[in-house]
């Protein structure tokens, strides 16, 4: 049975639009064809009980068709925020970040960097669990890295979202791609979430370590040297990127393409990687280059920020979809969840 990409609304025609399988569709697909699913991705990073350690933040939680040029302004579907919200001067928006679920090379303990490998079965399960945790938090736009492990994580997480909007990958890599992937129904657009993929959100490029086993590398170069490559701020691995170099591109992309969406009141999710997300969190939390060194992210667990009046407030990890705490943070999140309850009951 071929997997189906299920449109929960009008059974719209796909054509060249790239959307996502449902969980059922993915299960039948992965049973038959393995998990080489092309999808698009979302991110939520969690600070579960995070506290500032002497050396920086301990994160128990965790924390997109690649375009080699920065993505053209995404065609964002009409915002679904009601007009009263949009007239509010002090916009408030949810920012959800997540590191991808476990990948096949994480499982093999190989340096991955910008090599494009899929999730393991465990990584798939982590993504679905993450989706449950954020299933009541509003999402108007999704940004992902250009790598499949982050994109799979996002698409699988969105299968759990209660609003049931369909994430649709924006194809701006050429004029033909943009024209051929147009959606011609306003109603279908309203029930869709634009997904922008950007190489700038990719994992740091690990240079000549990519594909090497982390333990063998330590045996070959020494534990201290490998730790320095992995967790220093400005020392790159051989012919690779340092965290600082990764931050230069990832944070620049965030401030140029993502922050304006938040400032306009759009709720955003980002799907990315351990180091590109450490760089973004360093910006959001104003961490020093020393503090960010001890910032560690696990795979597939959510974190929520609230942007209010241009400031980012870290709100920890939605541990469960009904966790009262998350929705107590802001009125708009509580109202959104209440509307979902009314719509679905
Ligand atoms: O790219 C990789 O190997 C991992 O995603 C991150 O690796 P690190 O934790 O060694 O930076």
TrEMBL record:
Transmembrane segments: none annotated. It comes from the Eukaryota. The record marks 273 as: Transition state stabilizer. Coiled coil: none annotated. Keywords: Glycolysis, Isomerase. The active site is at 100 (tele-phosphohistidine intermediate), 203 (proton donor/acceptor). Gene3D superfamilies: Phosphoglycerate mutase-like (3.40.50.1240). Substrate binds at residues 99-106, 112-113, 149, 203-206, 214, 230-231, 274-275. One of its GO terms (molecular function) is phosphoglycerate mutase activity. CDD domains: HP_PGM_like (cd07067). GO terms for biological process: glycolytic process. It is an enzyme of class 5 (isomerase). Its EC number is 5.4.2.11. It holds the Pfam family His_Phos_1. HAMAP family: PGAM_GpmA. Belongs to the phosphoglycerate mutase family. BPG-dependent PGAM subfamily. This is phosphoglycerate mutase (2,3-diphosphoglycerate-dependent). It comes from Stephania japonica.
């Amino acid at each position: 049975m071929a997997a189906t990409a299920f449109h929960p609304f009008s059974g719209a025609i796909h054509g060249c639009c790239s959307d996502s399988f449902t969980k059922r569709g993915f299960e039948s697909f992965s049973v038959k064809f393995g998990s080489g699913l092309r999808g698009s991705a979302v991110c939520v990073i969690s600070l579960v009980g995070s506290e500032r350690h002497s050396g920086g933040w301990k994160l128990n939680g965790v924390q997109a068709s690649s375009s080699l040029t920065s993505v053209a302004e995404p065609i964002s579907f009409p915002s679904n925020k009601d007009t009263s919200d949009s007239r509010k001067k002090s916009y408030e928006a949810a920012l959800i970040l997540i590191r991808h679920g476990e990948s096949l090379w994480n499982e093999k303990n190989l340096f991955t960097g910008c090599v494009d490998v899929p999730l393991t079965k465990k990584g798939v399960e982590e993504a679905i669990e993450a989706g449950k945790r954020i299933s009541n938090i509003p999402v108007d736009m999704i940004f992902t890295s250009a790598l499949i492990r982050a994109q799979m994580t996002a698409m699988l997480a969105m299968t759990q979202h209660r609003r049931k909007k369909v994430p649709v990958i924006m194809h701006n890599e050429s004029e033909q791609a943009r024209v051929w992937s147009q959606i011609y129904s306003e109603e279908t657009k309203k029930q869709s979430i634009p997904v922008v993929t950007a190489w700038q959100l990719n994992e740091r490029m690990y240079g000549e370590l990519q594909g090497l086993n982390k333990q063998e590398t330590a045996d070959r170069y020494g534990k201290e040297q490998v730790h320095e490559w992995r967790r220093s701020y400005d020392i790159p691995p051989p012919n690779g990127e340092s965290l600082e170099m990764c931050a230069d591109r990832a944070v620049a992309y965030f401030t140029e393409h993502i922050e304006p969406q938040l400032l306009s009141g759009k709720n955003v999710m980002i799907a990315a990687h351990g180091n590109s997300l450490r760089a973004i969190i360093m910006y959001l939390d104003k961490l020093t280059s020393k503090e960010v060194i001890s910032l560690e992210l696990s795979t597939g667990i959510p974190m929520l920020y609230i942007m209010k009046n241009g400031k980012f407030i870290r709100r920890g990890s939605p541990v469960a979809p009904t966790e009262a705490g998350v929705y107590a943070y802001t009125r708009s999140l509580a109202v959104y969840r209440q509307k979902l309850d009314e719509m679905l009951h």
